[in-house]
Specification:
Layout (H helix, E strand, L loop, with lengths): L2 H27 L2 H22 L5 H18 L5 H12 L16 H12 L6 H11 L5 H8 L3 H17 L9 H23 L3 E2 L5 H17 L4 H14 L25 H17 L5 H14 L8 H14 L3 H15 L1 H11 L10 H12 L3 H14 L1 E2 H16 L10
Length: about 425
C-alpha cells in the first residue's frame, strides 16, 4: 500500500469511526476534550504505522486500543483517577494486541456512547455557534479548517469556539450521560436545532459565492439518520429527518449548469432525487404515527411533502400548505413563519391576499434586515403590476443579502421590473 493510499484509507476510517471512538473514550475519562485528544493520538499512530503495516482488519478497534493505552499514560499522571486507571487496566489485559483487535475491543454500548456524545456536543450551556462547531468536530469528524471553510469564518475563530466549548463543558461539570426523562425534551430540542442549522446553512448559504454548500446538508442528514436510529421513539427526530430528506431531494435542481439559482417553480422536477423523497415520506409517516398532533419539524416536513408529491408546479396543493403554515404559526409563533404563510396564501388565493399579510409584517423589528421580506414583497407587487414598487423592494433585498448568487438574482429581477415590466413574480425559493 502506498502512503497516498494509506492516508486516503485513514481519512475514510476517521470519518466513520471518530465519533464512536470519542464517545467511547469520553465515557471512561468523563472529559470530551481529553477524549478527543486521545482519539487524535490514535489517529497519529495510524498515520505512522498503517502505511507500513497496512490497514488492520478492524480499524475502529485498533484505534480504540491505542487510544486507551494513551489514556492509561494520562491517568497515571492524575492520581484522582486511580480507580478508573485500574478499571481500564483490567479491561486492557483481556484485549487482543494491536492491529488484529476484534470488534469486542470497542468498549461498552456504542449506541449509548454516541447518544451521550450527541447530547454533550449540543448542550444548551454552550452558545449556538459553539454547539454547531463542536457537533461537526466530534460527531462529523470535520477538521477546524473544513468547518471554517463551510461557514466562511476564519479557522482561528472555529478553533477558539471549540476550545471554549470544551472548557465550558469541563467547568460546568456536565455529566457524560443521556439526560433524565424530565430534561430530555428540552435537550433533544437543542440537538435538533443544531442539526437543522447545519442543514439550512448548506441548503441556502447565508453568505459567500455559492447558493448551496451540499457537504453541510449531507453531514446534517447523516447525523439526523444516526440520531433517528438512536432514539427511534422520538417523533420530532423522524420529522426533522423527513424534512431534510425531502428538501435535499431538490438540491440538484436548485442550480443551473453555471451555479446560478433556479427557483422552486422553475425547477426541473425530473432532476429531483425521488429516492430521497420516498425516504422522507416514510420518515414523515413514522413521525405522524408516533404523534398525531405533529410538532414543528413534522409540520415543516408535511409542507415539504406537498411539494415532493406534486408532479408539476401547477399540481402543488397551496391551500394545504397555507393551512399547515397556520398550524405551525400557532405552535411556534414567528414572523418568518408568517412570511412563509403569506407566500402560500398568495399562491392559493392571489397576490393581494398575500401582500396584505406581508404589509402587516413590514414594521416587525426582527425582520428589519431580513432580505426575504422585501424579496417576497417584490414578488407580490410585481404580480400585481406595481413594478416601480417591486423594483425598489428587489433592490433593497439585494442590498441585504450576503450571498453573492442570491444578490445577482435579486438585482436581475429588479432590472427586469424596469426593463420589461415583468419581474418573474411569485417564484418561491
Amino acid at each position: 500500500m502506498t502512503h497516498t493510499d494509506a492516508h486516503r484509507a485513514i481519512e475514510a476510517v476517521w470519518r466513520i469511526e471518530s465519533a464512536r471512538l470519542i464517545a467511547g473514550l469520553a465515557r471512561f475519562v468523563h472529559d470530551v476534550g481529553l477524549a478527543e485528544e486521545l482519539a487524535q493520538d490514535a489517529l497519529v499512530a495510524a498515520l505512522e504505522q498503517w502505511p507500513e503495516s497496512g490497514v488492520p482488519r478492524n480499524p475502529g478497534a485498533w484505534l480504540m486500543t491505542i487510544a486507551k493505552r494513551r489514556a492509561i499514560d494520562v491517568l497515571r499522571r492524575k492520581e484522582r483517577f486511580e480507580r478508573k486507571l485500574s478499571a481500564l487496566g483490567r479491561e486492557l489485559e483481556t484485549e487482543p494486541e494491536g492491529a488484529g483487535a476484534d470488534a469486542e475491543a470497542l468498549a461498552g454500548d456504542i449506541e449509548d456512547d454516541l447518544l451521550r456524545l450527541v447530547f454533550i456536543a449540543c448542550h444548551p450551556v454552550l452558545s449556538t455557534e459553539a454547539r454547531v462547531a463542536l457537533t461537526l468536530r466530534l460527531l462529523g469528524g470535520l477538521t477546524t479548517e473544513e468547518i471554517a471553510r463551510a461557514f466562511l469564518v476564519p479557522e482561528s475563530t472555529v478553533a477558539q469556539r471549540i476550545v471554549r466549548a470544551k472548557r465550558t463543558l469541563a467547568k460546568a461539570q456536565i455529566p457524560f450521560e443521556v439526560p433524565a426523562p424530565e430534561e430530555r425534551a428540552a435537550r433533544l430540542s437543542s440537538v435538533l436545532e443544531v442539526l437543522y442549522l447545519v442543514f439550512n446553512e448548506g441548503y441556502s448559504a447565508t453568505a459567500g459565492d455559492d447558493w448551496m454548500r451540499p457537504a453541510l446538508c449531507e453531514e446534517a442528514l447523516r447525523l439526523g439518520r444516526v440520531l433517528a436510529e438512536l432514539v427511534p421513539q422520538e417523533p420530532e427526530v423522524h420529522g426533522l429527518v423527513a424534512l431534510m430528506e425531502i428538501q435535499a431531494s431538490r438540491m440538484r435542481a436548485r442550480v443551473d449548469s453555471s451555479g446560478e439559482p433556479v427557483l422552486l417553480l422553475d425547477q426541473d422536477r425530473g432532476r429531483w432525487d425521488h429516492l430521497l423523497i420516498r425516504r422522507g415520506l416514510a420518515a414523515l409517516e413514522r413521525a405522524e404515527a408516533l404523534d398525531r398532533t405533529r410538532g414543528p419539524y413534522t409540520l415543516q416536513a408535511a409542507i415539504a411533502a406537498c411539494h415532493g408529491r406534486a408532479r408539476t408546479a401547477e399540481e402543488t396543493d397551496w391551500t394545504r400548505i397555507a393551512a399547515l403554515y397556520a398550524a405551525l404559526a400557532r405552535l411556534t409563533p414567528s414572523p418568518v413563519v408568517e412570511l412563509n404563510r403569506a407566500v402560500a396564501l398568495a399562491m392559493a388565493f392571489g397576490p393581494a391576499v398575500g401582500l396584505g399579510l406581508v404589509d402587516e409584517l413590514t414594521p416587525e423589528p426582527s425582520l428589519k434586515d431580513y432580505h426575504l421580506l422585501p424579496s417576497v414583497r417584490g414578488d407580490l407587487l410585481a404580480k400585481l403590476g406595481r413594478f416601480d414598487e417591486a423594483h425598489e423592494e428587489f433592490e433593497r433585498a439585494a442590498s441585504l443579502t450576503r450571498n453573492a448568487r442570491e444578490r445577482t438574482l435579486l438585482v436581475e429581477r429588479a432590472a427586469a421590473c424596469v426593463r420589461t415590466g415583468t419581474g418573474q413574480p411569485g417564484r418561491p425559493l
